[in-house]
Amino acid sequence: MKALFIGGTGIISTAISARCVERGWELYLLNRGNRPQQTPAGAHSIVADINNLAEVEEKLKGLTFDVVADFIAFTREQVERDVKLFTGKTAQYFFISSASAYQKPLSSPVITESTPLSNPFWQYSRDKIACEEYLTHEYRDHRFTITLIRPSHTYGDTMVPVALQGKKGFFSVVDRIKQGKKVIVPGDGLSLWTVTHNTDFAKAFVGLMGNVHAIGETFQITSDESLTWNQIYLAIGRALGVEPKMVHIASTTLSECFEGFVGELIGDKSNSVIFDNAKIKRVVPEYIATTRFDQGVRRTLAYVYNHPELQVPDPEFDDWTDRMIERYELLVKELPKLS
């Protein structure tokens, strides 16, 4: 198997890259070379900016692949570029879409690949839908061989999944829990969510590479474990040896405070979801997610606290959290009581 990954060093793709190399496959990673420590030994590095078409065409001259997977395509223009680059040069092209593309609000909490795509709350999701529609057209009309992948909330050694975070990432939330500070959990914390460890995701993804049954198809890849957000935060707290102090605030209220929360909460994390993984298991019979969240998050937190570069503070979000909780709790105290 000869594969080219565009990106290949992110949260999802790092585990896939490692699994490919372990299998002895010929793997090329095309990226800007910003994360050399995430490139597995044995993979070939092509340092280039995928947005520089002339540079990429020159560096890929004469190369063909069994699989090309783009892990950093987010817009229709980017996948149009990929079709131009790889028509006639790959037997299978993977596009990484998103489970956030599924309809919001959901007509059913049980999600299959046939669940309609529609998300009026998040431009990111609408862009992914547009990419899927374009690539499906290219497959049907021009036989550009595609496989579409819809991951949900996937994590690994370098990222802890949380419901609400600032612009600088998860660490501020995790460290608040560790220090015994209060943290905000959207809603009542009882909506169901699914988090998937990247090593589990990689099992399914690699099983689709070169798989004739994956051509022209769409697959969601997630764990079968459903947890409430309260359970997720409790698992993080237990891994840190503390009881998290959760303050529940409505997602609509939080979305009034920051436009970015509209997509992430109303268009994604506030919706109860249960993923039906029957299709991926049928095509990749060996696939099963084996990393339970309470186990996986312990590994992640150990890694994060042993790597200072991942411990990125977010003073702005931290200050906003303190002020938001203070005002919310004051408001609750002042609400009229019904006797």
Structure, explained:
It is a single chain. The radius of gyration is 21 Å and the shape is globular. With 339 residues, it is of the alpha/beta class. Strands 3-2-1-4-5-7-12 form a 7-stranded parallel β-sheet, with helices on both faces. Helix 1 (11-22) links the parallel strand 1 (2-6) and strand 2. 42% of the residues are buried. Helix 1 (11-22) crosses helix 6 (198-208). It has 12 helices and 15 strands. The chain folds into 2 domains: 2-155 and 195-221, 3-Layer(aba) Sandwich (Rossmann fold), CATH 3.40.50; 171-194 and 225-273 and 291-330, UDP-galactose 4-epimerase, domain 1 (Alpha-Beta Complex). The protein has helices at residues 11-22, 53-59, 76-86, 123-142, 171-178, 198-208, 229-240, 251-255, 260-269, 278-283, 293-304, 315-334; strands at 2-6, 26-31, 44-47, 67-70, 93-96, 110-111, 146-151, 153-155, 182-186, 192-193, 195-197, 217-221, 227-228, 245-249, 274-275. The model has no long low-confidence stretch (mean pLDDT 96).
